[in-house]
Amino acid sequence: MIVMNNKRWFGSLFAVRGTGIERIWLRLLVTLLVTVAVTLAWYNGYFRDFTLSIAPFSLVGLALSIFLGFRNGASYDRYWEGRKLWGGLVNNSRTFARGVLTLSHPATPEDAPAVAATQRALVLRQVAFVHALRMHLRREVDLDELRDWLPAEERAALSREINVPAAINHETGAHVATLFRAGHLHPQHLLPLDLALTVNTDVQGACERILSTPVPWIYTVLMHRLVGIYCLFLPFGLVKDIGWATPVVVLIVAYAFYGLDGIGEEVEEPFGTDPNDLPISALSRMIEVNLLQRLGDTTLPPLHKPVAEVLK
Asked: Does the reported pTM lie above 0.85?
């Protein structure tokens, strides 16, 4: 996610990273070369009978703007839903940790060390789930990254799992059930902890739905084709009226349409590592730090900071 001082108005005029230029520069270059060729050809007597009226471009441009707006709205809905899901995961992780640490209790004084160890293990398992979900959504596999929160034998078993966060959440439920059967958890307090694990499952399923169901390809292709055809034929509608200014005007219009098209591509998959994707690595670290503090740890990893104004 781009993290930039909004007061840097003039600086934003010359920004490149995260602005979509990296995605659309080749389209702009091709359109500019075609426009220059058409302009030169027209001034040399070619295409005089092929020039078009600007009226159809005005009508098509208006309709195209509306269609691109709808597509970008659909893409942003996916982005915002992903952010709400991860916001819910932040709250649910804190709720689960609070429930584990305040609702479970030793049956006898002799049980206190074992219960405290189980409480800590359960909170760390939630940290492991969050990091595993982040890697799962980014299609990354690095079980060594979970070594601080899960024992080695469980990480070895997870290497055979297709869905690692689901497996971790399932095993956490088994640990909560063991705590209950040992008499360290009141029956009325079992439900809130089980509900928190259910929320984990719901958040993961909703994120997987966004990840596995992109904007329909037929709609994306239609937008690409219409924008490309419009921009490539636009110089034929302008060259007769504005002459040598045609390349400049077409370049500005093309930047607007290609840029709008590129925005939809950029934000429709919110869990990646592009500059405008959600900072789920930073959110995962924040959850980790919050839960470690609840455990009383004083040596904490640093929160993620933006690198070159990008927070991942």
From this structure: yes
